[in-house]
Amino acid sequence: MSDMISADLVDLDLSADTKEAAARALAERMVARGRVTDLEGFLADVAAREAQMPTGLDGGIGIPHCRSAHVTEPTLAFGRSAAGIDFGAADGPADLVFLIAAPAGADDAHLTILSSLARKLMDPEFTDALRAADTARRAAALIRGDEPPAGKEARSASAPGAPEDTAVAPAAASAGATAGSTAETAAASAAGAGTSTGTGASTEAGAPAAPGASTGTGAPAEPGTGEEPGARGAPGAPVPEAAGAVPAPGPGEPRPFRIVAVTSCPTGIAHTYMAAESLESAGREAGVELVVETQGSAGFTRLDPAVIAAADGVILAHDVPVRDKDRFAGKPTVDVGVKAGINRPAELIAEVREKAARGEVSAPAHAPAGTPVERAGDATEGYGTKLRTWLMSGVSYMVPFVAAGGLLIALGFAIGGWQVDKAPSVMDHFVWTQTDSWGALLFQIGGVAFKFLVPVLAGYIAYGMADRPGLVPGFVGGAIALDAGAGFLGGLAAGLIAGGVVLAIQRVRIPAVLRGIMPVVVIPLVSSAITGFLMLVVIGKPIASAQKGLTDWLSGLTGTNAVLLGALLGLMMCFDLGGPVNKVAYAFATAGIAVTDPSDSAMQIMAAVMAAGMVPPLAMALATTVRGRLFTPAERENGKAAWVLGASFISEGAIPFAAADPLRVIPSAMAGGALTGALSMAFGATLRAPHGGVFVVPLIGSPLLYLVAIAAGVCVTTALVVLLKGMRGQAPESGTTGPAANPAGTREDTEQPVAA
Fold first, then answer.
1. What average pLDDT does the segment 147-171 reach?
2. Does residue 442 register a pLDDT over 80?
3. pLDDT (tens digit, 9 = 90+) per residue, 107-145?
4. What pLDDT, on a 0 to 100 scale, did the predictor assign at position 207?
5. Which long-range contacts (CB under 8 A, 24 or more apart) does 91-94 make?
6. Which of 66, 120, 687, 749 is 20 to 30 A from residue 743's alpha carbon, by CA?
7. Which residues contact 381 (CB under 8 A, 6 or more apart)?
8. Is residue 371's pLDDT more than 70?
9. Catalytic positions
């Protein structure tokens, strides 16, 4: 961890009074070190992570953290606040604040090191030593593991026969100390040591356990992967012969209660490993064998099936879906959020023991408890929210097929001409030296990709509802919808029907002898038959008629109606800059061109959507150029990148501006987007490709007027932003936008950025 934190990344007198101001103060130190390239963009990512779940922990700890494309290398900054800062913990403000910054593509080794810090935070001696540190250099050394906490140092020195390195690696000398609490542990994990010790047991006679050497029931990670181990053993357990094997009790000893646990959080950097450490410590105190599988960003090693089979209970502490959750079916299970694993592990252990005593077990494997949406979301969410999530699940998997197929078809037309759709199959006729043949090849590959759109949409809607059992009937129903001419609407219906049928089948009680064949034979057979029957005989034709009616209506839109539709789509594209509303508009447009011969109206809608989506980042880039004094230095740097992002139709390029000043930026962007969408429809511009920005202008019908529509929207948004920001005054050169920098409150700040 030596390259992650140094004295200049430590602030022992953090004066911030809000979590946003604290994150900014620590992030500015990262910027000064060149670890963060875009302060505002990084803070927007931190705020987005904070919005998912508060990062305050009991014991006076705040750990704001995120993955961000604006981070050059994994970095840690530490601040100590005398007054305390509210990070949402139940027991009050935090006086120890750790800002963890991981690159978007951080390697497993660095993330493992960050996870070792998360485990350290569960050690009271470590946090007490940080509170007592008198210099930034001392605090940085404690965090790196270069110096042990005073209490452990004293114990290590007094331990008879302690090896020479015990003062540096106290976990190797003290039973019950946790792996990952020393610099050596972190380094070994990063090097691929792969396993961990919770007991200090030796792997060789007279030698302390190497960091990561398994002494319990946990399965070690594969050598060289640098992964945090997926499971860790109970204290004092001998090294098992097989990874993850449950140690047998000694002669005459009663078998201890055995628990397997899984921890996971949205980013998989901090809470995942803190919950694991907390559960393991509580397990040692309760005298139970507790093995944890950490499903974090550094990868995970699945618990050995023998460990799960021998377990008496299961604890799932997670805020994202548990991977392969059906492994734990049929056992007493406590299912909670990850912070419960950190804050009340003893209660969870007691609860699972009570369930085991009552014989209360989870649903069997053929009827998993909850769908992917239910496991990931709040149990209080209504079905309207879940329905939207199911539909967006299908759309998100469909969009890559739209992009690939649409661009291939567009390139086929560009190379082979507008008659390329009449070309014979390239399997029968292909001439290497003729451009027409290459155009036909691209067109036909794109057409094949388009044939997957409706089945993929339906399949993954069903998957969002019923997990993997929903895939088969979903794909079957989607394929039938395609053949029946029901199109996009048919795919939506097929996915919902397939998911609902699978959920209904899973709730039927069946004999135990048949449970083994349910997921492989019975569920796919019955659900596909029912879904197919409903799509072919009952609702396929009515939906096809409705689809045709919608297509005819869109084709008949002219004049004012077309302009109003373009304005509405433009407003939606600019409302949340890549969020759900933006995605709905984009999905509507791509569904219209997701055929080999789309209508002119469908291509006009696609053109209007792409044009409007280009406006916000281009306008922000122009505004920072013409009135740079109204923007912070970081925003002016963002403006340079926004030129390319906007030209490439990446609306998210405007998010840093919207996150910093939503009340001025978002309405301005919506006004420009609405104008561009309306003008594009009025000009009759068409677009067959679903993406590409200015790089697909040669494939656009009426390209000059199309560019005029974009330019008009950009100018309107730029003018409004400059006007509104000019009323506020010049931006502070420091780049700060928090209350400390702007006590008058003339600039609105937001805790949560616009959805990306």
1. 46
2. yes
3. 554 456 556 776 777 778 888 889 999 899 999 888 887
4. 36
5. 91/58, 91/59, 91/60, 92/60, 93/60, 94/56, 94/57, 94/60, 94/61, 94/62
6. 66
7. none
8. no
9. 65, 265
The Cα–Cα gap between 185 and 123 comes to 15
Residue with tokens 């997990």: 467
Beta pairing, strands 75-85 & 10-11: parallel
Instruction: Say how far apart CA 639 and CA 646 lie, in whole Å.
Output: 10
CA dihedral 133, 139, 141, 146 (to 10 degrees): 50
Q: Considering only CA atoms, which of 221, 5, 9 is closest in space to residue 108?
A: 221
Cα separation, 321 vs 78, in Å, equals: 31
How many Cα atoms sit within 13 Å of 572 on the Cβ side?
A: 21
**CA-wise closest residue to 467 among 554, 382, 527, 545:** 527
> Does residue 200 sit in helix, strand or coil?
coil
Are 95 and 82 in contact, with CB atoms under 8 Å apart? Answer: yes
d(CA 361, CA 370): 15
Backbone CA torsion sign across 418, 424, 426, 430: negative
pTM: predicted TM-score of the whole model, two decimal places: 0.42
Average pLDDT of the segment spanning 540-548: 79
Closest of 451, 387, 753, 752 to residue 594, by C-alpha: 451
Tokens of 13: 């007198």
Please return the burial class of 364, using the count of CB atoms within 10 Å of its CB with bins 0-12, 13-18 and 19+. Answer: middle
Q: What is the DSSP string of 422-443?
A: GSPPTTT---TT-HHHHHHHHH
Report pLDDT for 152: 52
Distance between CA atoms of residues 726 and 394, nearest Å: 43
> Is 314:332 a contact under the CB 8 Å cutoff?
yes
Half-sphere exposure of 339 (CA within 13 A, CB side): 16
Question: What does the mean pLDDT of the chain come to?
Answer: 74
Residue 674 banded pLDDT, cuts 50, 70, 90: very high
Question: Coil, strand or helix: which one is 335?
Answer: strand
Q: Which residue has the tokens 């090191």?
A: 113
Which pLDDT score is estimated for 145? 79
Place of tokens 């007054």: 83
Mean pLDDT, residues 392-418 = 74
8 Å CB contact between 77 and 43 = no
From CA 517, how far away is CA 99, in angstroms rounded? 49
Q: Which residues contact 663 (CB under 8 A, 6 or more apart)?
A: 748
Position 111 scores a pLDDT of 56
